[in-house]
Design a protein that fits this description.
Elements: E1 3-10, H1 16-19, H2 24-36, E2 42-49, E3 52-59, H3 60-73, H4 79-86, H5 90-99, H6 101-118, H7 121-136, H8 142-151, H9 154-169, E4 176-182, E5 203-209, H10 217-224, E6 229-235, H11 251-263, E7 270-273, H12 284-296, E8 304-306, H13 318-328, E9 344-347, H14 348-351, H15 356-366, H16 390-395, H17 399-402, H18 440-443, H19 454-462
Helix pairs in contact: 2-5, 4-6, 5-6, 6-7, 6-9, 11-15, 13-15
The chain binds 2-acetamido-2-deoxy-beta-D-glucopyranose.
2-acetamido-2-deoxy-beta-D-glucopyranose binds next to loops.
């Protein structure tokens, strides 16, 4: 495996020296900072492993701005960037430290605050110590140190570590219930330490069998799970579809609501509602972070978190509006924005904010006793029409409302009520690299929209083309518009 790399800073002003190569970063920063009080703004890294090449850039200025906004107002914390910086090979960390000292120091302090929630205090202490070691390096001379103190939120970051640590001192471990509707999925992941690091000391697992199931499951699971984990197995038969007379599968919604109705008076501190195979829509990493915080009790102020990875596209559908109104006794104003795929964690307090009778009513709404009159738009994944009542499907868009969140559920990264470790930036679209792709002539201004033939564009937009197998073409390949 051959790894080649290139690393260069992009200065706000075009100063030749700063543009060149690895070692010159330090030179520029150290020599010029006293006179000009400026740092390179953006760092660009390229590396290849074999024939696959990557490029990544990190902006010192953006990171600084986002840190400021996080410490001052609780806005989206730059966690992904901080993880990127603190996990770079140390030689790169050093270059960035010399090029933009505040960025490297503060990334470690932000992560120290984050790790307090989920790890042994030694982890935060290590990150904190690294930040201080960096500030004490002889290369970080007085002028850089003054910069870190006055241009970066150093004091706020240190204070935050202190107050978070004090706040978490009084925590006590929380109990958790894991609710799993099952339809033949292999639940061995519950006991696979590679996937799920550890279950909290007080864990109950409720399996709701929806597809007949096999008698051996309980014995099999019990043999896998550690002794402290309690397993509660329930056969859950959905009602017959009134339209077809067939026993219909209602997906997760009947299991979730049955669980809340049955256990309303006997809930754990936190309930995780998950699928038989949660990793289809939720990374195990997020589950592990959540379980760590529950185990230690540091997430005791958490009331609701959606665990979906992709977001749902908000839709307008009269059927959805109707179900919303019947579930919540109020008309839906606006649209429902949330994550995909019905997996989330809810505190006992939050579940009990809604009276039991309302869950009973919702369960009746979805259990198959009310006919589905929704028109099917888009893929319905049904073996026969009506196999999956759309009540259950549409609940997917409103579980967060069921559990007391606003119709427009913020992105986790933007949600100020969530503990810091749960505010990682979501998976999101990955547009092509700006400077290396077909976009670069346009982005760089060399090619313009104005000089495209509008008629040709219009013609192509209006004309159906059978593309057959998808073929990707690059701008330089003579794309004709
Ligand atoms: C645990 O999960 C990993 C990753 O999916 C898999 O490779 C491994 O075989 C699993 N271990 C067991 C004991 O099932």
């Amino acid at each position: 495996m051959v790894v080649t790399s290139r690393f260069f800073p992009v200065a706000p002003q075009q100063r030749g020296l700063c543009q060149k190569a690895l070692v010159l970063v330090a030179l520029c920063a150290v020599r010029q900072v006293a006179a000009q009080a400026t740092y390179p703004s953006e760092f660009r890294m390229e590396w290849c492993i074999g024939s696959s090449c990557f490029d990544h850039s990190i902006s010192c200025a953006h990171f600084q701005l986002r840190l400021h906004d996080y410490y001052a107002e609780g806005l989206r914390p730059p966690l992904r960037e901080a993880f990127f910086l603190a996990t770079l090979p140390p030689v790169y960390q050093r270059e960035l430290l010399l090029g933009c000292p505040g960025m490297m120091v503060l990334s470690h302090l932000l992560l120290a605050e984050l790790r307090l929630y989920t790890h042994d205090p030694g982890e935060a202490a290590t990150l904190n110590a690294r930040a201080h070691i960096m500030m004490e390096l002889p290369e970080i001379t007085a002028v850089h140190l003054e910069n870190i103190k006055h241009a970066w939120p150093l004091q706020l970051a240190l204070q935050r570590i202190q107050t978070t640590s004090e706040m978490l001192d009084g925590r006590s471990p929380m109990s958790v219930d894991i609710v799993l509707p099952r339809c033949r999925e292999d639940l061995a992941w519950l006991a696979n330490g590679t996937l799920l690091q550890a279950l909290p000391a007080r864990t109950r697992i409720f399996v709701y069998e929806k597809c007949g199931g096999d008698v051996g499951l309980v014995e099999y699971l019990t043999s896998l799970l550690e002794n402290h984990v309690q397993l509660i197995y329930t056969q859950l038969d959905d009602a017959a579809d009134p339209a077809t007379g067939l026993a219909a599968r209602r997906d997760e919604c009947t299991a979730y609501l049955s669980h809340v109705v049955r256990e309303y008076g006997n809930l754990a501190d936190m309930t995780l509602f998950l699928h038989g195979d949660p990793s289809d829509h939720t990374p195990f990493g997020l589950l592990n972070i959540l379980l760590r915080g529950i185990s230690s009790g540091s997430f005791s102020s958490l009331d609701f978190i959606h665990l979906g990875s992709p977001r749902l596209v908000a839709t307008y559908n009269p059927c959805q509006d109707d179900i919303y109104e019947r579930a919540f006794n109020r008309p839906l104003k606006g649209r429902l924005y949330t994550y995909c795929c019905s997996q989330f964690a809810v505190s006992k307090k939050r579940i009990r904010q809604r009276p039991l009778e309302e869950y009973v009513k919702m369960l009746q709404l979805v259990d198959g006793s009310v006919a589905d009159v929704c028109e099917r738009i888009g893929p319905s994944y049904e073996k026969y029409a009506g196999q999956r009542l759309s009540h259950c499907f549409f609940l997917e868009f409103m579980w967060h409302v069921v559990f007391g969140e606003p119709d427009n559920l913020p992105l986790r990264a933007d949600d100020k009520t969530l503990p810091l470790p749960l505010r990682l930036k979501d998976s999101e679209e990955r547009p092509p690299s700006l400077w290396k792709s077909y976009m670069s002539p346009v982005v760089g201004g060399y090619a313009t929209f104005q000089h495209q033939s509008h008629e040709s564009w219009l013609h192509q937009i209006r004309t159906h083309a059978d593309l057959g197998r998808p073929v990707q073409r690059n701008f330089g390949d003579g794309l004709d518009f």
